[in-house]
Amino acid sequence: MTTDTIAAISTPIGEGGIGIVRVSGPDAFAVAARVFRAKSGRPISGQRSHTVRFGTIADEGEEVDQALATVFRGPNSYTGEDTVELSTHGGPVPLRRTLDLLLRAGARLAGPGEFTQRAFMNGKLDLAQAEAVIDSIRAKSDAGLKVAIRQLEGVLSRRVTAARDSLLSVCAAVEASTDFPDEVPEPDRPQLILQTGHVLDEVNRLLATADSGRVYREGVSCAIVGRPNVGKSSLLNALLRDARAIVTEVPGTTRDVIEESVTLGGVAIRLLDTAGLRDSEDTVERIGVERTHAAMADADVLMVVLDASTPLTREDEQALDEARGRPAVVVLNKSDLRQFLVGADVTVRLPHAEVVSASMATGAGLPEVEMALAKVVLDGKMAPQDVTVSRARHVASLSGARNALEAVLATLRGDWPLDLVAQDLQIAARHLGEIGGQTASERIIQEIFARFCVGK
Ligand code: GDP
């Protein structure tokens, strides 16, 4: 049970048209009333739920700012408690002053994610939905937002809950007969196998969406690699239609790793422009090359850039070798000049790579580069489904459930005694319950909310 009233600034710090300070808890109306005076003179305590009033934020009679007070009466609020949102002018000073006044009036400063944690405690959201709140705030693409909003609506939670309920009923039947063997007859094994098999199928269906789920939620990273002067920065700039990377004719000027994001095919792609691969005596440049290797090792996808107006060099061959066995796009750049390289020169070394001829000087082939990149990134992954599992935590729980369910089926099919399956059924049900939070440990719950920002 929560007994205190919390307050925090819920909009980002900085200048904006409006900013919101939120107060939630049993004394929310009393606390807000000490700080906000409606122009009409009527008190917040009498204000109807889901209505807004205009007035002032006042500090002992001195007007601090004009404001709107929106009242939500529990349980019909985000947190499930009485809540007031004070909308002031969106500057750090009015927001800070309003928050300070609320704290002096009896509220406590909310911890990170505490509003959402209260919503969870009060049964307004389950854990997967609470996670979807952060995912929607941090969505990196339209598709990522879609995945988060579907999860926030409870689509994943409902599917997992239904599977868990079905498992718990199998569990109850098994336990009744093993606990009271004389009174309760053993349940029909083929029936148990069928029911458990249905749950396993559902778990597998959910797991099958996880690969694309991660890509849509987190995006992927793509390192642009190649020796100096082949046109890596020009390519990055063309992809960004932006001029952040410095384009120059001196080899090896892009010494650090530059990171920019684009969205292709609904996926956020972090493009890393690397220092270029070359053997160098220069210390600064060597550091850049080391970073290039680190970025290459971490990247989900490699984009190898070659200068097609020159034959392959040893450094080009090294870059191609590094891409072997990895998702890769090879760009044969400078197609506007006399050509010394053709696609076949690359495909003999990298049969699986997408090879595209392009010119960053004229822009020719750029759409093909984007298409190839989207193809490699998505690699047959499905577009966001109705339910898309997007978090490693959910994948871990579903995998745990799958393993336990497979053990249950093996025991049932092997005609082993029934009490051997009860424990695995419990384990599977516990794993499924972790996703919505019914069986998640206090530590996991704390960890999840600690990742929220204050005010959410
Ligand atoms: P990086 O060192 O690999 O990042 O290469 P840059 O993007 O800095 O390009 C090196 C030089 O090649 C610059 O002078 C670019 O203008 C030039 N360049 C890049 N792409 C092309 C192209 O498609 N055709 C021609 N002719 N020149 C290009």
Overview of this protein structure:
The structure is a single chain. Helix content is 45%, strand content 18%. It has 456 residues and is an alpha/beta fold. The strands form 2 sheets. The chain has a 7-stranded mixed beta sheet. A 6-stranded mixed beta sheet has the order 9-10-8-11-12-13, sandwiched between helices. Strand 12, helix 12 and strand 13 (354-357) form a beta-alpha-beta unit. The relative contact order is 0.12. The structure holds guanosine-5'-diphosphate. Guanosine-5'-diphosphate is lined by residues 226, 228-234, 247-249, 254, 276, 333-334, 336-337, 359-361.
Hetero groups in this structure are: guanosine-5'-diphosphate
Q: Give the strand order, joined by hyphens, for the main sheet.
A: 3-4-5-6-2-1-7
- Secondary-structure-based class equals alpha/beta
Mean pLDDT across every amino acid position: 89
What is the percentage of strand-forming residues?
Answer: 15-25%
Low-confidence stretches: 242-250
Tell me roughly what share of residues is in helical segments. 40-55%
Instruction: Indicate the overall shape.
Output: flat
Radius of gyration over C-alpha positions, nearest whole angstrom: 29 Å
Spell the H/E element sequence: EEHEEEEHEHHHHHHEHEEHEHEHEHHHH
Total count of helical runs of at least 4 residues: 16
Instruction: Compute the number of strand runs.
Output: 13
For the terminal residues, how far apart are their CA atoms?
19 Å
Largest β-sheet summary: 7 strands, mixed
